Amino acid sequence: MEENKWQEKFEDWIRENGPSLTMFIYKQVRNKELAEDLYQEVLISAYLNLEQFEERANFKSWMYKIAINKCRDFWRKQKAAQKFWEEKVYHYDMECSIPEPEDYVITRTSTKEMIDTINELPTIYREPILLYYFKDKSLLEISSAKKLPISTVKTRMRRARNQLKEKTLLMEIAAN
């Protein structure tokens, strides 16, 4: 009987205050579809946690608190996604420019030396580097092809680049 009472109160409250709650969420996220999605998440969360509602609190405050928390969760996810893209997952320090003729010769010679250096790397580091830089595969494509998490591919790329830097530095020292 107690559960039925809360369900009825919940339904009544939604009928009366649902539009204002939706508007509140919209003002937070400034996107109609997103506000509607978050509104649905708020309702589901509130309904599933009705038994945790304490009568000494105001039901409206409780619902708005859930709404604020859902908006914060969304903002955190957005911030994490933005950071992910800011790290330029698909492009690691690659410049798009047309080389001068003398640069082309130097680059061609350097490329052969670099490929020789890359071939000296352990296979787990060599494969992602070759796929990324010479086969123009994205990190996601490499991840799928090798059946590895993208974080593993990124780590192997970073380690391979570090090893290549060390080897080229040693080659420069030996040349001087």
TrEMBL record:
The keyword Oxidoreductase does not apply. The keyword Transcription applies. Residues 113-164 form the RNA polymerase sigma factor 70 region 4 type domain. Residues 14-79 form the RNA polymerase sigma-70 region domain. GO terms for molecular function: DNA binding; sigma factor activity. Belongs to the sigma-70 factor family. ECF subfamily. This is RNA polymerase subunit sigma. It comes from Robertmurraya siralis. The lineage of its organism: Bacteria, Bacillati, Bacillota, Bacilli, Bacillales.
